Amino acid sequence: MAEADRPWEVAAPFGLLAELTHRCPLHCPYCANPIQLTPRADELTTAQWKDVISQAHAIGVVQLHLSGGEPLARADLPELAFHARSSGAYVNLVTSGVGLTRERALLLADRGVDHVQLSLQDADAGPADYVAGARAHQCKLAAAKAITGAGLPLTVNIVLHRGNIGRTARIIDLAVALGADRVELANAQFYGWGLLNRSTLLPTRDQLDASLVAVEQARTRHAAAGRGPHIVHVVSDYYAGRPKPCMDGWARRQLTVTPSGDVLPCPGASVIRSLPVENALRRPLAEIWYDSEAFNAFRGTGWMSDPCRSCPSRHEDFGGCRCQAFHLTGDAARTDPVCRLSPDRALIDSALAQAGGLPQADHVMRTPPVADARTASEGR
Ligand code: SF4
Ligand code: FES
Questions:
Q1: Of the residues 322, 326, 331, which should be mutated to test ligand 2's pocket, given the most ligand atoms within 8 Å of the CB?
Q2: d(Cα 271, Cα 277) in Å, to the nearest integer?
Q3: What residues bind [4Fe-4S] cluster, as annotated (predicted)?
Q4: What is the pTM of this model?
Q5: Predicted ipTM?
Q6: Which of 127, 133, 223, 298 has the most CB atoms around its CB within 10 Å?
């Protein structure tokens, strides 16, 4: 047996993605949350989240991402940030920025938030608010000012898709003007809401090529001006022909806890219905990380079949994305269909052949959890 194919040695997790809530004021059609959102009534309490954070720290987690939905929807966010920082974690807030006033930013910085990742939808209010399904763009600009004013490092994150990819250069310029230390341009991924909207979100090859040029030119322009943030550009794996090393390997470095306490090897893993679902209210995090069937299902390379099993790239890309394989083939153990060597690659090629076909007005917007929508309409 080759050295690297020996039974996988499980290292301690590095990061915890804490999805504090699925509530969100926005309705983006590429939302990374699952289609079945958790209603507010099922969210973990403050004490339960604190226990999850303490357990995560005890098994080695050093980076905590407070995310959602919109984590600002939780009134206990400063308390949870304080608890995480007191445990020694580096605390990253992932937010839409809606509701992030100067006072809240100062409070969160004081309670231990180390860094903020702010999402933008576009360069201008019109298309940005259209895709967000809410008047949010101006709030985001104010939030960026509040974040930098509180002395917090700022990452601006933008999902690129067919509707905004043509404005890549202007989007980067806006992020630079807002004082971003880092700009993340992530082409829309096609799971959950994104897969539902793939035909309206997938850019054409020409659009993608133009955006690659725009990113390089922006890097050069801003570096020459001496104010260049680090610009990360994650290109759609549909066009890459080789899969991304999704999650840096299944259950290898990070775990996700959902608003109701489900513990997942990756944020999208709830779609893989063949995996048992673990929950932090029923089982200690350490046991879930090291011993659970779900976390061990695709660790290492032993689970692979051909073409991955004998492929020299298997230690670099881990066979790609398990959720994507499940979404597209119904079998999470198959080679990621984006790989040119996958027997399912035709599924991707036929989607690419149709790119640019449907108008963006056909987006299915993310809707709130059913129970929350009912509560809001009843005025409670
Ligand atoms: Fe990666 Fe498997 Fe494709 Fe090889 S065959 S490049 S390991 S996905
Ligand atoms: Fe789950 Fe890639 S999104 S493994």
A1: 322
A2: 10
A3: 24, 28, 31
A4: 0.93
A5: 0.90
A6: 298
Q: Which two tokens stand for residue 7?
A: 């039974």
Task: Count H helices and E strands in the chain, helices first.
Answer: 16, 10
Distance 251 CA to ligand 2 centre (A): 10
Say yes or no: CB of residue 80 within 6 Å of ligand 2: no
**Is residue 313 lining ligand 1, measured as CB closer than 6 Å?**
yes
Q: Which CATH architecture has domain 12-285+298-379?
A: Alpha-Beta Barrel (3.20)
Which bound ligand lies closest to the C-alpha atom of 269?
2
Query: Nearest 5°: phi and psi at 254?
Result: -145, 150
- Ligand number nearest CA of 324 is 2
Strand positions, DSSP E, the chain: 15-19, 63-67, 90-95, 115-120, 154-160, 182-187, 230-234, 254-257, 262-264, 278-279
Mutate to test the pocket of ligand 1, among 309, 310, 317 (most ligand atoms within 8 A of CB): 317
Token pair 């308390």: residue: 79
268 touches ligand 2 (CB under 6 Å): yes
Residue by residue, pLDDT tens for the chain (380 residues) are 444 444 567 999 999 999 999 999 999 999 999 999 999 999 999 999 999 999 999 999 999 999 999 999 999 999 999 999 999 999 999 999 999 999 999 999 999 999 999 999 999 999 999 999 999 999 999 999 999 999 999 999 999 999 999 999 999 999 999 999 999 999 999 998 999 999 999 999 999 999 999 999 999 998 888 777 999 999 999 998 899 999 999 999 999 999 999 999 999 999 999 999 999 999 999 999 999 999 999 999 999 999 999 999 999 999 999 999 999 999 999 999 999 999 999 999 999 998 877 666 678 898 876 666 555 444 33
